[in-house]
# Entry
Amino acid sequence: MNPMMNTDMTVKTNSADKYPSRVSEQPAFIERKDPVLYTRWSEESPLSKEQSEFYEKNGYLVLDRFFSEDEIAEWRTELRRLNEVHRLDEAEHVILEPGSREVRSIFAIHAHNEVFKRLANHPRLKSIAAYLLGSEVYVHQSRINYKPGFTGKEFYWHSDFETWHVEDGMPSMRAFSCSIALEDNFVHNGPLMVIPGSHNQFISCVGKTPDNHFKQSLRRQEYGVPDPESLERLSKEGGIETIVGKAGSIVIFDCNTMHGSNSNITPDPRSNVFLVYNSVENRLQPPYSGQQPRPRYIATRE
# Structure
């Protein structure tokens, strides 16, 4: 481990920023200051007691075949249609792969597309979201991530909350992502990887955020990514889990869970819908970086 790295769990903060990041020349660990589960479990809860305890401890939960084959078929058809449209028709909320015309991500699908708007408002998902976050919720961010066979690129290790906090102004860890598998996720086609338990420690990253960083970071992120020593420490403490499952399965993971995925060099595509739910009591403030907010298709401010 880098001897210059600050491994003290208590770093200087101010009352306005519980999780300072990109403000120091050295990375640091900051102990989580927010709950993970905001509602006490009861018999009426949408998750079992065992599922709730697993999520609280590990920062993620897999729900196998949560959606039916008919539901997935509709969303997969729409996913393919959008891919064909946006390979030819550029739009600011569509992100291409570095160095090619392949579609990497389509953002704000809950706002721009009726099919995925209905998915974002699915009663079962909204029930889980309200339970985990202990309040009414709204969609902070939504996107399709394409990872086609042979050409799908990696997503490097990161905590979503670090970026949402620094660049969007999300005050607290009171949000989570739901990844919906529209194709089978195998070990070999670049599935989601998570570090269990990593949600309990915030990694303060180094490097001042460039202006309009989102234009590059959505294709290949360079700022707000953890240093190798911090990642090694987290992985030694919690290990690395690779999430596999059939189409229709979902993974819910805390906003601060460290995650990433490898490139897909196999013939098997792997496309997922991501929905990010945030508490209405955790609405965005001015970005903690002091810069202009990112566009609303990346971070909903209403």
